[in-house]
Structures are given as structure tokens and as C-alpha cells.
Amino acid sequence: MEPREKYYEYWGLHKPPFDNVPDPSMYFDMHTSVENAVAETLFAIEEGNECLVVIVGDVGLGKTMTLRVIVDALEPEKYRIAFVTNPDMTFMQLLREILGQLTGEQCTESRREHILEAFNRTLFEAPGSRKKGADFHR
Known about the structure:
Distance between the termini: 59 Å
Order of helices and strands: HHHHH
């Protein structure tokens, strides 16, 4: 038996416990603040009252894991989600990244007004947008 297999058997593991990407299936209830963040964010999303939720905290406190738990709890047929893990980009790069994730196609637009137009069009065409959509300017 390989050392890895012995390790897994000893600890009762079926897959690696630590990875570079947080895995919600490895999540366990540990801290009330995480549970509160998950519950309050899901409530805000599901109620759809056009609010903004911000999750902040020091490195290693579980922000990314919290977001992955939230994303996994949402019905994929009801929501289109853009998950930006590296916010260190310009505003236009951020919009192109979000557009790419929402449409499934890389955004090749380079002119600001075209990117904003494509972003607004994507939001207005979103299922369940109830025709009120969102207009995004900066």
C-alpha cells in the first residue's frame, strides 16, 4: 500500500483534503460568522431586492470557501454566476471577464462603450430579469 493510500485510510479520506481551490464538499460547519454570511447572502440573492452583499475578512478566514458554498447552494437553472477569483484587473478587464463567464464566450471587444453595451445587453437578456435589468455605467 502506498503512503498516500495509508494516509487516506488512516484518516478516512476519499480524496485529497487540501487543494489550491476550496472545495465546498470538504466544508464543515465551523464558525457562526461563516454560517451567517452564507445565510444572509443567500437570502439577499433569493429575495432579489437589488441589494449588494460584501464579504470581507483577512486572508485565510474562509471568504472564498464561503462564496463557493453559496454558489453550490444556488439553483443553476435559475442563476447565471460569474465567479471572479482575481479582482486585480482594470474595470474593463473585469467586465470582459464577467461577460465571458456569463455568455460562455471570450469577450473580444476593446472599446469601452462596446463593452458596456454588451454588458447591459447580457443583463437585460438574463432569464428572470423581469425586464427591469440593470444598467451599469462608470
